[in-house]
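Assemble and predict.
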Amino acid sequence: MAVVEARNLTKIFKEGELGAVNNVNLATQEGEFMVFLGPSGSGKTTLLRMIAGLETPSSGEILIGGRVVNDLSPRERRIAMVFQSYALYPHLSVYDNIAFPLKAQKVPKAQHQQKVEWAANLLGLGRLLKRKPRELSGGERQRVALARAIVREPAVFLLDEPLSNLDAKLRASAREELENFHKQVGTTTIYVTHDQVEAMAMGDRVLVLHQGTVRQIGSPKEVYENPADTFVATFLGSPPMNLLEYSDVIVGFRPEGFLPADLVPGGKQVQFRYRIKYVEYLGAERVLYGNIEGGHLETKEIISRLSWNMPSGYEAGSVHDFAVAETDLRFFDRKTEKRCSAKPYPWQ
Amino acid sequence: MRAARIKSVGAAQSPLLGVAMFTPAVLYIALIIGGPFVLAILYAFSDARIGATSFHYAGMENFRSIIQSPSFHRALQNSIVFTVCAVVIVMISANMLALALQKPFLGRGLIRFLILLPFVAPVSLGSIGWKWILDSIYSVITWVLIQVHFCTPFNAPMWLGEPHLAMASVICVHCWRLIPFATVVLLAGSGAIPKEIPEAAAIDGAGFWRTFFQIRLPMMLPITLVAVLFSAVFTFTDMTVVYILTNGGPFDSTQTLPSLAFATGIEGGDLAAGAAISLFLVPVLVAAAYFMLRVASRAEVT
């Protein structure tokens, strides 16, 4: 187990252009499960590949276990990586795929079988050892890739969107398996994804990336409830946070905090006349799209999310009293788009 | 039954179109390859000679005399040495080149073009160029060796005049011609390996040699076999390089089966013997063709 650190890490692919990764600083904790979350093109995979040693940083330092590893090859960094495509060796059996790192790192031959079987059993691959990768399902391939990664007991695990090739149902169970697996082995893990549900569910901490810069590092609860800027506020949460601009301030609140006035918990609240334009019925919840009657906010679309057990009667075209608790309001500076302290805001 | 097998709609609607499409190819093969092949078989069992107006059935007489002839043994041996050495050198060099040309670098396009050049240039012209390069008096190689005091003008190597050197020269020139072909085939094959696979091997701790021999080479095995078989057939049947550089000499030391067949049948006028010699190539080529087709179909599947 080891801690991964990046100091002012930058990667510029083409001279003169914006870098893929810009001045990133991060430090994992011992045994932590850290998720890099960002839309595609945000630099999360490049960041991971630099940590793995597959990409050379343009500047900055990478430390693994307190040692600068910039000049070390991937094999010397004692990391294991699972690729998005799994990158199994197609001509080797499952057994030989898992044993490959042991051979490559000159582990004594006598231990191979025992170690391969340990890894295979941990991931429930016992029956499949003789098969070739092309004879396996997507989920089985993913587990072989994981087994190949753990077999030599690496210091750090790097996972690059390992679930994105699975169908939705399998993805949920594979996610659970990965979580259990991390609890069992306890190795520091960095997990790259563009899926916020995966990030929220699995991460001890989430690092949100956008255009190669770190927007926020925090626990899933922190990044969701207290986003550092408007990008994090809208990227996390589906539907995203409502943002209302006025002069130099942006105020935001989550759709699930914007409810019929009598359902909003006590304390100070801001009330609106809310005209519903249309309703999406999603089973467990209803998403209302509409706008506020009167005042300067009239043209702005505002989203509300009602859970299934809330009263019905919120139909398209109707107008109701809605409110949001003042404690649920988040303020952002309009120029920097960063979080700022609460400011007076003209609601009407 | 036959109609059910035709899956293409166009062909099913108009069988005439199909016939029209493949007739030129069949005619071409029948006239250029089939005709001479039948004639060769006919001649091999006869006493045909250039200039004779008729020929008679001679049974196995041609084959009997060829098998007993020392120059045939020599040619067979030379053909095997020529083919094996050339294919080994070609495959090793082509693998190195394909690896070197895989990652982009400044001037890669130009180097790829230069490497392809020997293959697109006419064989005869290239061989004539090499004949001059390896000439006993005007050889530039010898000139360079003398300039760097490796040898004197009096004991300079005779590239095409000493048996072993002549064979080595012929093999080298042939390799020069075939390496581009094998390189292009291998480049295509290595382009089909996803880049994550060597990366995964690097992370798993494999160095260059392990990645090459345990990952890259086995993954490229089908396409490599295609390159090996084609190179072997091109070499085994080639006579241009031998004919132009040494014409089989000195003392038959570079005579291969095709060049012996040409020398006996056309230059020596003994058509029947020449045809019989060339028929000895057939079993080898049939085996090679069989393997080529099998490997090609396997390469498609995986």
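The mean pLDDT of chain B is 84.
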